[in-house]
Fold this sequence. Notes:
Keywords: ATP-binding, Coiled coil, DNA damage, DNA repair, DNA-binding, Helicase, Hydrolase, Isomerase, Ligase, Nucleotide-binding
Structural class: alpha/beta
Domain Helicase ATP-binding: 51-217
Coiled coil: 768-795
Pfam families: DEAD (PF00270), DEAD_assoc (PF08494), Helicase_C (PF00271), WHD_Lhr (PF19306)
Family: Belongs to the Lhr helicase family. Lhr-Core subfamily.
Amino acid sequence: MNARTSRPTVTQADAVDITSPTARDATPLQQIDAWFAARDWKVFPFQRTVWRAAQKGKSGLLHATTGSGKTYAVWFAALLRVLSQGAGRQQGGLRVLWLTPMRALAADTVRALEEPLAALLPDWQVGMRTGDTSSSERARQDRKLPPALVTTPESLTLLLSRTDAREQFRRLDVVIVDEWHELMGNKRGSQTQLALARLRRWNPDLVIWGLSATLGNLQQSQDALLGDASANGVLVEGASKKRIVVDTLIPDHPSRFPWGGHLGLQMLPAVIAEIDRHQTTLAFTNTRSQAEIWYQNMLEAKPEWAGLIALHHGSLDKSVREWVERGLKNGELKAVICTSSLDLGVDFLPVERVLQIGSARGVARLLQRAGRSGHAPGRVSRVTLVPTSSLELLEAAGARDAVARGQIEARAIPNKPLDVLVQHLVTIALGGGFTSQELYDEVRTTYAYRNLTLEEWQWALDFVARGGQSLTVYPEYRRVLPDEHGIFRVPDNTIARRHRMGIGTIVSDASVQVKYLSGGTIGSIEESFISRLKAGDHFLFGGRILEFVRMHEMAAYVRRATGSRGAIPRWQGGRMPLSSELAHAALTRLEQASQGMYEGAEMQAIVPLLELQQQWSGLPTAHSLLAEITHSREGQHLFMYPFAGRSVHVGLASLLAWRFSREQAGTFSISINDYGFELLSPVPVNWQALLTTAGIANLLSTDHLLEDVLASLNASELAQRRFREIARIAGLIFQGYPGQPKSNRQLQASSSLFFEVFRKHDAGNLLLTQAQREVLEQELELTRLRDTLEELQQRTLQVHQTKRATPFAFPLMVERFREKLSTEKLTDRVARMVRELEKAASTR
DNA sequence: GACCTGCTGCGGTGTG
C-alpha cells in the first residue's frame, strides 16, 4: 500500500486573484475560489489537495473533525472530476453518488450540496433515495436517475438488484461515502464494499472518496473503502486539529461516593446545576433505561423544566425524536437526555455543553460526543464526564490522558462475512446476472473478501443455487440458476420480491409498538418486556408513567397513569466493553497512584478509596496482577483485576474456572465487570495452592486456548444466538410483509430450526462456521484475550487474603450477572466433544 | 453502606 500522504502544500498556481469572479473564462477552480470568497470563507490546503487529486482521477479518504469544511472538500472534488470528464455538463443519468449511513442525514446533505452545485453546474439537481422516498419519486428515478443522488448503502444495493442496473450506473463518475467510520466496522460496510466493487467494474476510472472521523487504523480504513485500488489512493488529513477539552464533574463528597453502580443519580444535583448554567446541554447516557430514569428524576427535581428538557433514544417514535431534534436546532430546549441516538446526525449548533454520564467506554466514542459541542470551525469542543461510581473517576483521568496522547481505537473490519456475500450473489443475479469467474474476481477486489478462497466461493454459489446440502429439496432455496450461457439469474419472481424485501444487514429483534388508547405512537419496546406486564401495571417509557391496558395485533395500548413509580423497561442491547486504550490509560494512572502520585481533580477525589484499597489489599498496576481471596457466608471468593474489558474478562473468568476445576472439582459462580472478575465457590477451595508460580503459569497459558475457551463456555448456545442474524442476512428467513411482522418467537424458531438442520445434515455449512467465528472474534474477543494472557504472564502475581470485599471487589460482588459452571456438566460436555471429534475424524 | 444496565443504523407486498 502507498505511503501516507504528506501534508499538502499550496502552489502558486492555486493562488487565484479573483478580479472577475463571474468571468466566463474562469476555470472551475477559480469559480470555487470565488464561491468561497463570496462567503468570506477560507480555503484550506487540504481542500485543494482533495480537488487536485480528484481532478486527476485519484480516489482517497479524508479524515477530519466535524465543522472543518470537509463536505465542501469532497463535493467540489466530485464536481471537478465530472467537469474534467469533458462532456461534463450533459446530464443523461447518474454521475455522482453520495452515500450516507442515516436517512436523517440524507435530507440535510441534499440541502448542503445544492448551493455549491449551483455555482458549478447550475442545470443539475440533487436527488435523494431512501426508504422514505415516495413511490412517485421512485418511479421517476427508475426511468432515469438524477445526475446527483444521495442515498444509503441499502438503497444502493437495491438499485443494483434492478435488471437495468448497469445501464443506470453507466455514466457514474464519482462516489462519496460519508461517515465511513460508521460503516467500515460492521456488515453494512462489507455490503458497501461489494457494491463499490460492482460500480468500479463498470467504470474502472470511478473516483471514490470517503469521509471519516479520526481512527486508530486510517490506512486500513482507506484500504477497505478502495479495495485493490487503494494502492493509488491518497489519505488526506483535514484542517488543523480541533481543540478538545475533557473534564469531570467531581462528586461533592468523594468519600461517600458509591463504590459500584452505573446509574449515578448521586450526581443529579451537580448535573442540574451544570445544565442551569448553560444555554443548551446534551447529556449522553449509556442505556435507554438510564436515560429514562435520569429524565424522570430531573423532572421531579425541577418541575419547572417541563417542556424545556427532553428525552431521545432509539426506541422512541420517529415523530417524537424529530420533535426533539427540531427543538435542539431552534435552541428551544435547555437539555436533552439521550443515548448514542444523537451521536451522529444533524448538527445542532446551539449545543453548548456535552455531558457523558457513566463510562465513555472508548476514546473514539468520547471524541465523537465532544464533537457535538462547539460544532463550527475554530470553536472548542468540550465534554464533561459524569462518574456513576468511584472507579469511573480513575477512568476519567485515564480518558483525558488517552485523548491528549491521541490513543484512538482501531475499528476492526469484518473478515469475509459469508452471509453478506450470499445476499450479494442473489442481488447481482437479479441485477443483470453474473458468471462465476467474473464475479469471483470482482468480489476479491474488495478488502473484506480479498482472501476468499475458491472453495468458499463455490460453497456460497452452491448455497444460493441449491440451498446447500440440506435444503436441496426446497425450491425456495434454489434462488439462482445458470442459463445456457452460464449466467446466473434469479428464475422466479416471488424469490426476487422476497429478496428485495430482505436486503440489508441490520437485524433487530421483533418489538411491540407502544400506543395510546386515544391514538398516537410513543415508540417501541421489546416483546419480552411487555409480555411480563399484566393489565393495570405501570411502567416508565418516553419520560412518562404509563398504564398497560392490553395487547392488540403486536401493539401495546397504554394510557397515562398517575403516580411516580413504575417498572423500568429493559431492552436488550449491545454490551460495549471498555476499550484497551482506555483500560491501559486507567492502569497507568493506578501505577502512578501506587507510587503516591495523584495528579488532577479526579485522582485527588479517589485518594481515600485507593488508600483504603492499598491498606486492605494492594493496587493493580501495569506490572502486577492483583488477586484477592476472601471468605464470606456465600463462600470463597477469588477476585482478579486484569483491566481488560468485560468481554475479555468473561472469557478469562470462564477459562480460569474451567482450568481450576480440572485441579479441584467444584462449581463456581462468575461475576464480571470492565476492571476484573470474581470466582465464587460455595464449598472450600484452596485458592492459594492453585495460585503458585507454576499454577498461575498454567492457568494463564495460551496453549490449547481455543479448545479450553470453547469447553469452558456454552459456545454452541452463543453460536446459535449469532446464527439468527446470519440466517436473516443470508436470506434463509423471510421476515414477513411490512405492516404484518412475524413475532419474535416465530423468527427465533425458524432460525434455530435451520441451525439444527445444518448441524445434523450439513456440518460443513460455512454459515455455521461463521457463527462460531463471530462469537469468538466479536463476543469473546479471542485475539484480545490471547494478548491479555500473554501480558498477564509478564506481570508479578500479588495474592492478598482480605477480611472483606475491597473497594475494587465490591462492585463485582453486587454485580447481578452470575453464571453457574458446574464441573459435572462440564465433564459431560467435554466427553461429548471428544465423541464428536472422534466421529468427525473417523468419517474423513 | 455501598447496587439494582446494556447503543445505533435500513429496507420492503400485490395489480388492473
